[in-house]
Amino acid sequence: MFIDDLRRALRRLVAQPAPALGAVLMLALAIGLATAMFSLIDTLLMRTVPFPQAERLAHVMMLGPSGGSISVDPSVLHAWRESRLFDRVEAQAPATMLLGSGADLTSSKGAYVSPGLLQMLGARPINGRLFSPEEGRPGTGDRVVIAERLWRSMFGADLAAIGTRMLVEGSPATLIGVLPDEFRFPEWDTAVWRPMDFLAPPAGDRPVLPRAIVRYSPGIPAADALKAATTMAHEAYPPQADNQWAQAESLASPYQGKYARAAAPVLAAAAVMVFLVLCANVSGLLLARLDARMREIGVAAALGASRGRLMREALVESLCLGAGGLALGLAVAAGLLTIARAWLPEALLIHTLNPIDLDARAFAAASAAGGAAVLAAGLLPAWFATRVSPMSAMRPAARGSSEGRGSRAARRVLLVSEVAFACMLLVGASLLVRSFMRMAGAERGLDSSGVTTAWVQGIGGQDATGPARVAASRRLEEALRQLPGVQAVAFSFGTPPDGGGWTMGEWVSDGSSAAPIEATFQQYQVGPDFFDLYRIPIVRGRTFRTEDHERTVVISERIADLLWPGVDPVGRSFHREGKEPFTVIGVARELHLPTTETRSDRPEFYLQFVPGRANVSINIRCGGPCPDVARIRQTVRDVEPRADVWQAGVLDRAYLAEVEGPRAAAALVLTLALIAAVAVGGGLFAVLSYAAGRRRREFGIRLALGARPGEIGGLMLREGARVVVAGAVIGGLGAWWLSRALSSLMYGVTPGDPGSWLMVAGLLIVIALAASWRPAARAARIDPSMLLREE
User: Could you write out the DSSP letters of every residue in 301-369?
Assistant: First the structure.
């Protein structure tokens, strides 16, 4: 019975391929968008990491109320490994590694790993092998495993590259294996792994401290294991473990920033709205298709076909369309994910260790979306089409009569719903786009163009004295000034926008009646050339001089307004409860970090930089293109072999990273909103064109009785306008609620932003006119005499 229904449905679809193809394409787009969005959100926020026994894996560190370290001492690592608290204890230390030399010098994310770590995480090389247990010890550390993308770019994916010697950190190393790009650890873009025996005593002036990665033993609760691990750490290395305890961060659950977590429900809701809009479009198309077959359905009912059988035939036809839409939708989803992998910014991907692809969960989501699409698109048309009365359907005039009231009302409800969803999407998209534009164009308070920054640690070696470090710093500064394009170099402790640290508490100014102010300030240590390099104006007072004492500070405008509103703060003092006072010698223009997380944009003050620190920040301004990071790292290594460079990069990228998430969210929601708007326009055009065709007899009679063509055209325009206005009113109420939910994602824009609402209103008017104009013109050109001849 089902096979017969299927054959008849296929014959009907083949007989009228254009409507069937349009329905399949709309269903494919709906299913593809829903599946791709589910895959993205699942990858970024819900799926566990793709490692064996992921729920038992954790990163264990020693932390306390006053801070601590995410790394542990080798003696602590050894104690944990020798115990039975953990099934396995491995370690890793992320690093940036130099590859090649000369003109081929490049910089890549890498990691030093204990020999058994990759095996514990289930890594499977696509070529070569992983590290053996003895590798990483003295004399066996010249091995390297690289990522597939690096293998393709450096060796052209040559299978014979295994065993080749390559330069890593200036020393030759033997390539022994290639890992697929799907393997991501410790970061999503790590491309080089080198073995290291973290239990051996630290060698050289640049010790690499391990970060412990453990797998809990079966049957031992995690809390008990961490409590015992704390006791062992206290016994193994008391100086580090004093007032600290073992804390764990599970590897099973992916971590995402606050913006991504807030944006995920919005993106999911937007995808669901577009899904419903497209399904409503298909439902309207099927309703019109079945409405045109009323006579056929009425004859079948008159011959004894039950309503259940007629509904089954209609649903089988929808099922055929849904099956085609599902197959094509999976291809659409795969294409969208391919685009996402190439286009999504690091701000959304940097915290996930999962590859973005179609897996079993995505196929399940696609199947669910396909089933929902078939029900949403096919149930309503089947219900109305089978309510036909055999007598009314078989009347000779039925073929040219107006459409039924029930089906007409159903199509109007579907169109109003589409417009409402599109209105909500357009308002949300306009708010997010305007927010992104405000954020991208916000004043930063400094000139970051042409500036490269880096942190350098270990200048002069671990045991160097202050004068030795001062001399080493001067040699390094002079070498960096000699690089092509470099205009200025300034040392500091802390670079914008993160600073060298922050300090919080109750601050008291020197006013006799001043009340304490609870605040958190960003702190930098800088020299006088820092302000010139970043072109930060001193609006009052002056910068530092050599003879200034260590408690003199330059403050920002916000701190001045907080502590001395309306008063010149130069020469005044302030302090934190229980600390020595600072004396203000100048006020600098306020620095701003455009971000939706307002707590990250803190007011700042500057202490005087004291030369001779082992760890410093380097600020480099260039007149043209700056030397790349690899060249800067190599220069530091040439001058100071004992120093190490980390977190090096172009400063503009640090600011752009803050807007990449908002840009991606705005672009995604805008794309979905435009798809919904186009679907609404197409659906409104199709329904009005169908209605005009079904009402040709009515319009002909009106014209024959003296109605003007403009009145007939106006009738169709008003029909489209009523639908759009009703949908806009309902959608406006929903958009107001949605805009309140978007407040945590907006910067410099309020939910009631008039510009956003006016743009949406204008776009809806354009959609209504564009969709209604041609059906109205066709209705106005009907010739009554032609209709009479047809009768």
Answer: HHTT--HHHHHHHHHHHHHHHHHHHHHHHHHHHHHHHHHHHHHS-HHHHTT--S--S--HHHHHHHHHH
